[in-house]
Amino acid sequence: DSILSILQMPVGVPVATVALNAAANAGILATQILSINDENIAQTLRDYKNELKDKVTKSEPFKIAPDNIP
C-alpha cells in the first residue's frame, strides 16, 4: 500500500523513489541532489559513476567481440 501511495502522489508533491533494498541508489540520488550546489560533491559523484562505468564495460558480456557472437 505504501508503494502505491508514493506512486500516486498528486502534482505538486515531488517524490523520488528507488528500488526496495537499494540503499546505495538512494544515496546516489541524494548525492546528485546535493551536487547541484557543491562542485566537490559533483566531482566525487562523477568519479564514482566513471568507476561504475569502467567496471561494467570490463565485465564479461562486453569482452565478447561482435564477430564472435553466433
Verbal overview:
This protein has helices spanning 2-7, 23-35, 39-57, 60-63. Helix 2 crosses helix 3. It is flat. The model has no long low-confidence stretch (mean pLDDT 83). With 70 residues, it is an all-alpha fold.
* Rounded mean pLDDT score: 83
End-to-end distance, in Å? 46 Å
Task: Please state the structural category.
Answer: mainly alpha
The rough form would be described as: flat
Q: Estimate the helix proportion, in percent.
A: 55-70%
Number of strands: 0
Main β-sheet description: none
Low-confidence stretches: none
Number of helices: 4
What string, H for helix and E for strand, traces the elements in order? HHHH
Radius of gyration over all CA atoms, rounded = 18 Å
Strand content bin: under 5%
Annotate the secondary structure layout.
Elements lengths: L1 H6 L15 H13 L3 H19 L2 H4 L7
Helix pairs in contact: 2-3
Short description:
This protein has 70 residues and is mostly helical.
Key phrases:
mainly alpha, 4 helices, flat, 70 residues, 0% strand
